[in-house]
C-alpha cells in the first residue's frame, strides 16, 4: 500500500494545495503503468537500492535522519577523511565568498575563473603530467574522452569489469571495441594482436576495481602496450590521493608513471569528496578535449566552493603523506584482524575491503545486523557483483580510530557467528 502511495507521489498523483498534480491523458497513464510494473520487477528481483538519509556531515561517525546517532561509517569513499576536514571546509567557504556560488555558464563562454586554471595546473603537477582539464564529474570525464579521441580507424581495448562510466564512454565512440577478460593478460595480448590492423590502440582499465579492491596489473599492461604499440588509459577514482609513495595513484605505486598516457580521476572521493573529475595527460590531448569533449563543452563550470575544496585537499596531500600512511596502517589493521577472525577479504593492501560471503541473503541480513550494532556497511550481490560472490564491502578511512576498526571487527565476528558465516 505504502509503495503505491510513494509511486503516486513520485509521479504526480495527488490533490490539494502544494500537492503534485498528475498529468492526464492516455500516454501518461500508460507510462505510469509501465513504470509501476518495472519498479515492481526491481523489487521482486531483490535489487531495489534504498538510500539511508544522513543528518550529519560525512565522516567516520554519522547521525542518520530519524535519530540514529553514533553510527560508525564504513561505506564512504572518504579514504583520507578530507570530506569534513576543517581546512577543506574553510577553503570552500573562502572560494564561495570570493568567487560566488557559480558561473551560470560553461567554461568556454563565460565560465573560467583563475581558480579553475590554478586547480588544473595543480592536478597536472600532482600527477606529473603536462596539463589537466576539469569536468563536473569523473563520469563526465569518462563519457567525454573516448569519443573525442578515437575514430572508426582506431581501437579501444577495455577490461570487462571496468566502471560503468568507462563502458558508457566507449559506447559513445565509433572506434572498434575489444573487451578483454578481467585482468587477463593472455586475453589482452590476443586482443592486441587482433587490433594491430587499426591505426591506434588504446587500452582502458580501472587502476583499482572498486567491487574487489584489486589493483590492475599495470606493469604487465604497459609492457604489452609497448610491445603492440598501444596507449594506456587508467581511471584512478579509487587510487588518487593514497596509492603510491606520494599518493599519485596506481601508476606511481607500480612504477609506470611514464608509460600511462591518460589518467582520469575524481575529486569526489579522496580529494575532499565534493564533486568533479578530470583528465590529465599530454597537452595536445587536453587542448583537443577543450575543443571537442561534449560533457566539457555543454555543461556548467565547477562551482567555486567545489574547486576550493579540491585545491586545498591537493595542498594537504602535497605537503605530507602522513594522512595516506595513517589510512594504510588502519587498512592493514582491519584486514589482518578480519583474516585472523576467519573471514576472507578480497584484494590486497587497499582500503576497499570486501568481506566475501557468497550468499546474497547472508550479505544482506548481516549488513542489517551490523547496523543494529552501530556499524554502517553495505552488502553487494548480483547483478552488481557476479552470482555467488555476494559480499559486504568495508571501506577504511584515515579518520577511523583503531577503536572504530576493532569495534567493526568485533561486530563482524558476532554477526558472522550468529548467521553461520563463521564456525
Ligand atoms: N570511475 C570509477 C572507477 C568510479 O568508482 C566512479 C564513481 O563511483 C566514477 C568513475 C565516477 O566518478 P564521479 O563520482 O566523479 O562521477
TrEMBL record:
Pfam families: Aminotran_1_2. GO terms for biological process: L-threonine catabolic process. One of its GO terms (cellular component) is cytosol. GO terms for molecular function: glycine C-acetyltransferase activity; pyridoxal phosphate binding. Its cofactor is pyridoxal 5'-phosphate. Belongs to the class-II pyridoxal-phosphate-dependent aminotransferase family. This is 2-amino-3-ketobutyrate coenzyme A ligase, mitochondrial. It comes from Formicarius rufipectus. The lineage of its organism: Eukaryota, Metazoa, Chordata, Craniata, Vertebrata. The gene is Gcat.
